[in-house]
Amino acid sequence: MSATTRVLAASWLSIALFVSACGDDNNSPTTPSTSTPTSENWSGVVAPGGQSSRSFTVNASGSIAVTLTASAATLGLGVGLPRVTGGGCRLGVTVNASAASNPQISTSADAGQYCVQVYDLGTLQDPVGFALKIDHP
Amino acid sequence: MRFPVLILILASLCPACGDDTPTTPSSTASGRATERFDDIINVRESKFFAFSVGSNGTTSINLASLSPISRPGVIVATVEIGWGKTAKDDAGTVIGCTLSKVTQTAPSLSAQINDTLAPASDYCANIADVDPATGLREPANFSIRITHP
Fold this sequence. Notes:
Structural class of chain A: mainly beta
Distance between the termini of chain A: 70 Å
Number of helices of chain B: 1
Mean pLDDT of chain B: 86
Strand content of chain B: over 45%
Order of helices and strands of chain B: HEEEEEEEE
Helix content of chain A: 10-25%
Largest sheet of chain A: 4 strands, antiparallel
Number of helices of chain A: 1
Shape of chain A: globular
CATH class of chain A: Mainly Beta
Order of helices and strands of chain A: HEEEEEEEE
CATH architecture of chain A: Sandwich
Low-confidence stretches of chain A: 13-33
Radius of gyration of chain A: 29 Å
Radius of gyration of chain B: 25 Å
Strand order of the largest sheet of chain A: 1-8-3-6
Structural class of chain B: mainly beta
Strand order of the largest sheet of chain B: 1-8-3-6
Number of strands of chain B: 8
Shape of chain B: globular
Strand content of chain A: over 45%
Number of domains of chain A: 1
Mean pLDDT of chain A: 84
Oligomer: heterodimer
Helix content of chain B: under 10%
Largest interface: A-B, 41 and 41 residues
């Protein structure tokens, strides 16, 4: 084998190695994640005449379920949109709720930012603790 | 002379490899904007909000909340929401909303209106208390979401 032939053979081998280094690196684009059901727990205290709210994000259209799981008194429970400024909720759905294991609120909703609010119905004499669960897409 | 030629061929192949960073897939919400129209509406009153649509696609209008001014909770009432084109005076000042579509609705967390709108900068969303029987009996805070391309 002449020197020229050896150089050519080595060169073509190098080319083959470079080409094999290209191609599928198993880095194909990830597909958008589909929304999985999310459950959030929250607890707090409502003072007489007061209210307490918390925001959450719904990633896809679906059903929002809110369960007041613990409270020593009947409270106002609502779901709505967070205020643009100043905190709190602009409520769209409300119920008077006592603690239970099944959702007191179940409503369809588009994807977006939401809030849940717990408030005194005008009956509290002392602060009341509560716990609730929010299930959403 | 052949060897330098082959080196050049090898060099030209190198840029073909390298960065294989995956492209980021566009999300379903890509390019969509959500605007909030929050205000107070009085009994028998109407209010509008101007917005632009940047590209073809579905525009959604959602009356999400009607709530009392000074206490928590919601107001149970039916009002009219809709969309149209802004009306301007001779000076070009927006003075009203000429409605193209309306619907009577109570608040919901899902859009009440979904329409395909052509790109334009002179759309408006409107809310009006029109029905004395089912409408407002007191001033109300309202929240409308407008989602568009």
